[in-house]
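Sharing a chain and its predicted structure for anyone who wants a worked example. Both blocks are below, sequence first, tokens second.
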Amino acid sequence: MKRVYLDYAATTPVDPAVIKAMEPAFSELWGNPSSIHACGQDARSIVEEARGKVASLIGAQSNEIFFTSGGTEADNWALKGTAYANRERGNHIITCPIEHHAILESCDFLKEQGFSITNVPVDRLGMVDPEEIRKAMTPGTILVSIMHANNEVGTIQPIAEIVRVAHAAGAYFHTDAVQTVGHIPVDVNTMGVDMLSISAHKLYGPKGIGALYVRSGTRISSIIHGGGQERGGRAGTENVPGIIGFGKAAELAAEEMESEARRLISLRDEMIKGILGAIDHTRLNGHATQRLPNNVNISFEFVEGESVCLNLDLSGICAATGSACSSESMEASHVLLAMGMSPEMARGSLRLSLGKWSTEEDVKYVLKTLPPVLSRLRAISPLAKK
């Protein structure tokens, strides 16, 4: 059976060049980077080299990159660490309802600790209006956290504008850039952010490694305590193989990002046009142009997205109904609901996310396979118009 992987937003295959770069960490560079002997210092050297590559990808300084176990930990640290370190200045945090659960549930936790949380609305395209941030600001606002691009619908936010609003009121700004780093240009200085979360497995690196960018001078407390690793910011022996792989993935992304984005935009637009043209009662979710190069998210009336996904899987197509992190939930997407979509329409959503090994043939296969799947499901759906 032909296998077509279209769930790159959930995770990416590890690039063969990344695997090759990681191999010495299991046989030659296995020392503890905190050790003062030669084996340890050899490992330390390669960790710092990788840190520099990650920093370079986003225009940061090496000492502003702190390695974590992934994007979820980076998000948790950014919110909780900033909240705890700045509590004497205020207790108000602003975010939006389409954030990843790592942000939303961290906010729920902080609310239990006495912090005040405001969720500013998004429009029907999933866009945050900077004016809504301005209206939500209070004298006690210490942090604004808005994701760079949404993991489900791909909408890219006007981060630089929102940052200016936050800074004008004296608040720090964090962005979850897990879906954007390595795929579209991200420069922390152009954007002006104080903190930014990254995950290696979203850019063809290994799972279990990520980073939090923290601008020099930002007040943030540690949330994992123990040894003095990561310059006292994050305790725990460094994941040397993962860090090496992360560094190599960042290096490759810097070289390939521009041409790869152009290629994926072409495939993305071909797929969107083909689906909307071939299947009635469909809707593109997210912004038509201010969206990730690889993201296709479409809702189909009268069917459940999960059924569409399972039928596509039987034909060898790996897709998603929304965020992979909540794929076991039968609830409608919180992202689509926040964008004003009805629960029935939201449950009929399908996300097809392209990547480095996606081809024109893959797109054609989807356009051939998807219409008959929808026809079969609608024929047996009690929701379909007869």
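Comments welcome. The chain has two domains: 4-11+258-379, 16-252.
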